[in-house]
Amino acid sequence: QVQLVESGGGLVQPGGSLRLSCAASGLSLDSHTVAWFRRAPGKEREGVSCISNGYPSTVYADSVKGRFAISRDESKDTVYLQMNGLKPEDTAVYYCAVPLYYACSHYVFPTGYGMDHWGKGTLVTVSS
User: Fold this and answer.
1) pLDDT confidence of 108, banded at 50, 70, 90?
2) Of 44, 48, 57, 58, which one has the greatest count of Cβ atoms within 10 A?
3) Pairing of strands 3-7, 18-25
4) CA angle 114-58-18, nearest 5°?
5) What is the reported pLDDT for 107?
6) What is the radius of gyration, based on Cα positions, of the chain?
7) How far apart are CA 24 and CA 126, in angstroms?
8) Does 96 score more than 90 pLDDT?
């Protein structure tokens, strides 16, 4: 059974940084596309970033471009989301997800369609 586990969330002041991690059991993240989504209180789910071995290799939502960076550590089979310059509007539960059969195409990101596995999320709160 596949399980995705996010970690690294927490409380941070505006302008601060956090690094989220996504690890998996029952699945090699190195071989698959991994996407990050978030859901803020009272808002719709939003695609944040996506990384793929195909094309495109990385994608970012306009709201996080230049501030967030997605990466892989193949030795740890983990995907990271480095978040810098955090703003209060970044407050949300962040989820990682894996589509087994897609790269970061418009079909799966930022829509979330085609995701086969989801983690339970990690809460990021940006507040002074």
Assistant:
1) confident
2) 48
3) antiparallel
4) 100
5) 86
6) 13
7) 26
8) yes
Alpha carbon dihedral 57, 45, 95, 14, in 10-degree steps, equals 90
10 — pLDDT class (breaks 50, 70, 90): very high
Beta bridge partners of residue 83, listed in sequence order: 18, 68
Yes or no: say if 21 and 7 are a contact pair by the CB < 8 Å rule.
Answer: yes
Q: What is the pLDDT of residue 122?
A: 98
Asked if 94 and 121 touch (Cβ cutoff 8 Å), the reply is yes
Is residue 48 a contact partner of residue 95, using CB atoms and an 8 Å limit? no
Contact 14, 88 (CB under 8 A): yes
Tally of residues, the chain: 128
